[in-house]
Each structure stands twice: as C-alpha cells, then as structure tokens.
C-alpha cells in the first residue's frame, strides 16, 4: 500500500508545493494572485487572482503553468483602472473567477467589486475576453438580483448552465443565482435564485461537483482572521444544501490550517484528484499573503483536506486505489474508512484506531455473513486470523473465533452508502473518541442514540481485485438504492422486534446445546408454560409447545428447522423469557 498521502511517491517535482510559504514565479518574483481560481485549458493551467500593491488593488493577475509548480507571470488580465467608481475614483477587485461560455465563445470573469473605500457597495464586476489570458474588457457592475454580494464565486455545471454564489444579507445567507445564457448577468425572465445555508454566516464559497452531487467549502465570517472550515452538499444546486463537517482534519483545523477557502480544482487523470486552494491572509499587507494549496480527497464521500508540509502531484498516484464495492460479498476482504477523516480503521501498537494509508497498520477484514441474519457479519482480521469483538458494549478487541454474538456486527445503512457498525450483543455503534479526526485516535463503541457516532464506509483494494464491481457512490441512483435498503432494514428490524422480545424476570431460563436442543428451565413457575420459536430474520413462527411449570422441558428443533438463528419465547403467568439460539 502506498504511503503517498503522507510522503512523496517515487517521482517528485524539483519544486514541490509548500503550503503557506512564499511562492515565486519563473522570474523569481513573489506570485501575486490572491482569492484565486485555476482553469485548465489547452494543456496549461491558468491562475487568476487579486494583484495587490500592499493593500491597494491593482487588478487581476494571470499566471500560466504546464506542470502545476512553475508559474509564468502573464501580467494583469484585468486592471482595477478599468472598473473605477465614478464618485470615488477608486476600486477594489477581489476573488476573481473565470469560466468559458460555449455559446458565445467568450471567457467571462466575475469579481467582487467595491468602490475602494470599504465594503458597502457589495457588487460584482463582470469582464470578458476572447482568449483565456485576456486582456479582459469591462462589461458591468451590479448587485445580483439587487442582493448585496461580497465573497463570491461562479460555478459552471455539466449542462452548461452557470451560477453565481454570493454571501448576502450582510454575510448572513448565501445566495445562488442562475446566470443568463451569455453569463453576463443573472437570469431575469424569470428571476431564478435561492438562498441557502440560511443564518449560518458563511463566506468564501468554493463550489465543485462530483457525479450528481454538488459540494461547497466555506469559511465563517471573521474578517481577515482564519476560522474552522465548513462544508455543505446538495443533490440539486438550487435545492436544499445540507451542512457537513469541517473539511480540515489535522492540527490547526480550528483555523483551516490558517487559511480561507477560495477554490477547488479537479485534476485530470484520476477520479479522486482534487486540490484545495486557500489564502493565508496578511491583514496589514495583502500583497504578501501566501497560499495554502493541499490535496483534497473525496474517497470517503465527503471533502477531506489533510495537512502536508510539502507535496507534489505524486500524492495522487494511489488516489483511486480503494473504492466502495457495489455489494459486500461474504468471504471477501474489506477495509473500513471513517467518513469525516478519510482514515482507515487500523491496528497500531495493539490499539484499534484511525490511521492514514499504511499497509502495515490498516486493518484488512474478511467479512463472513452470519447465517440466518441479514446485514450481519463476523469480521476476521487477516494478519492475525482473529475476529473483531464487542467487549461489554464499550471497547473493541481481536479474539480467537467463538460462537458468541459479541463477534457479530450489524451494518446499518446510511443514505450516503456509509454504515453505522453496531455490535449485535450491545447494539452500540463503532465511533471515534471525542469525534476526533486526528490520526491515531482510538475507536470504541457508544450507544446508538449518541449523536456523535461516526459513519464508516466499506472499501476494497482495486489493485488486488481489479475486476470487482464498484459502487457509483456519487450518483443519484446510488442514494436511491441506499434509501431502499434503509427501508428494508427498518422492516427487517420491525420484524425482529415483533417477535416479542420482552424483559426478563419471569423465573425461567432458556439455554441451547447448539445442536438443535433448547432447554427451558421453569422449575420455579406454577401453571402452564407455552414455548414459541420464531425465525429471527422474518419473525415467522416455526414451532410451539406447552408444558406444565415446575420442571424443565426440552424442545428439539434439530429435526424441524433449518440451520440459522431463532428466537425462543417462553411465556407463563409470571412473564416471559426470551433467548436467541443458533442452530447449526
């Protein structure tokens, strides 16, 4: 297994990316392009960003690179002098974003525009060019559909439609507006817009799409000072956006690694190669602000950005190695990846914990379906041959195989394809200490009503099984299928509960020899005792007997039922006793 998420691969750039450090262009001058976007076109990358002289806005810089490391300064693609306020004679240009209009053949740039005296105008500036590097010509400034708009971006969808995202209502809400066909203004006939993430005070939007799912990275509103990152997602760009977790997971995640989001770039060549782009602002001299670019992983189904002191594109060599299976096959080996951290369930120094990609530590588990129980597996750790066990509903351990239900795990489906991993004996769920996302944090079990439980995805190694079917985890069909599984599971669980599992205290005891013989000890019970046996998976009654209390009775199931899991219910005037039994 590659260590590429922690160290360089075999091929390294002579000029790796060093997040937060000064980045010079090919002439040795400091790159001056803040609040950026990066566009891939004709085999080259184009980096657009705010050009500052100290705090003064000079325009929008354009840099070009063919290797993603060395950037040539092409000069100002658009100048602040082209968009001065007629009253103040000044202007400020921030957060430029460039998209291409296929119908008009024009490159269109959207910029947050102010009059050079503060942030009261809250408008966008639009400029166009025939060539990607410019020069761009001024088109207009306006408030999108009359809404104040500060931190902003534009997003071009796969159907060619484009949308403006802007922090509005004094940074209280995020407004999403459909652009006109030429992208030069917002759609007016009819006005098509919606406000999302209401009252959350998000800014610095960076929007991208994976499959059928839209994702956004945002910051809170703390001026130039960094704060925890925020994420959100939606299946409809103009629909409801669901809030997610902080997309940064390591030390200094409380400040998004001392950065503020500005853009997410999808790199060619891999399904799972994205770059997070942020700014580490210097509030007293914006010109000297630096750039925090880091790999962004969507492997877990959610955006995750881990800290690296330095990196190059070899970090993506194994980006597509581990994928979700289309279905879990009994007898095959899988890995658990925790969704919020994109880290593996691992065994390190005899502790079960979360770790980065590391073949020596990541736990490879053989899933063995439990006969007679749906959605339930035993999990054998491949290296040791031992089985994952629920210890008193609190901790995890690896033990020699036994018939105990403490080695059985119920996978409760989530809509996104992840699971709650629940111990059968306790019903408690696999989780992370303190809901931490840090590498090395311990795993344990918690009650299922605890909101801090974590979601775990099941993954397989495509290098070992290249022909195995892969889940289309970012498709609408995948989520619809998962919702159906969730409904099926609810019906299954209702069937189990309808068997009549009631509290003990009846004075009776039920045991099983494992070969089909069930013993009901009712020595302390007066009156008649009725024994009913139900199939655990369906709740169907398969056997019933009645005998006098005051004695023990045997019920031989071996000759009347198939091997599987059953529930035995003994009922008397004193109450009921319930026991699950396994017939082999």
Average of the residue pLDDT scores: 91
CATH architecture of the largest domain: 5 Propeller
Largest sheet: 9 strands, antiparallel
Oligomerization category of the chains in this entry: single chain
Number of domains: 3
Question: What is the terminal-to-terminal distance?
Answer: 39 Å
Q: Low-confidence parts lasting 5 or more residues at pLDDT below 50?
A: 1-11, 498-504
CATH superfamily membership of the largest domain: Glycosyl hydrolase domain, family 43
How many beta strands in the DSSP annotation?
A: 40
- Helix-residue proportion: under 10%
Q: What is the third-level CATH name, the topology of the largest domain?
A: Tachylectin-2, Chain A
CATH class category label of the largest domain? Mainly Beta
Overall 3D shape: elongated
Count of helical segments?
1
* C-alpha Rg (nearest Å): 30 Å
Structural class: mainly beta
Kindly describe this structure.
The chain has 584 residues and is mostly beta strands. The chain has three domains: 283 residues, Tachylectin-2, Chain A; 175 residues, Trefoil (Acidic Fibroblast Growth Factor, subunit A) (Trefoil), CATH 2.80.10; 75 residues, Immunoglobulin-like. It is built from one helix and 40 strands. Strands 21, 22, 23, 24, 25, 26, 29, 30 and 33 form a nine-stranded antiparallel β-sheet that branches. The protein has a four-stranded antiparallel β-sheet with strand order 1-2-3-4, with no helix packed on it. Strands 5-6-7-8 form a four-stranded antiparallel β-sheet, with no helix packed on it. Strand 17 and strand 18 form a beta hairpin. It is elongated and about 100 Å long. The N terminus is likely disordered.
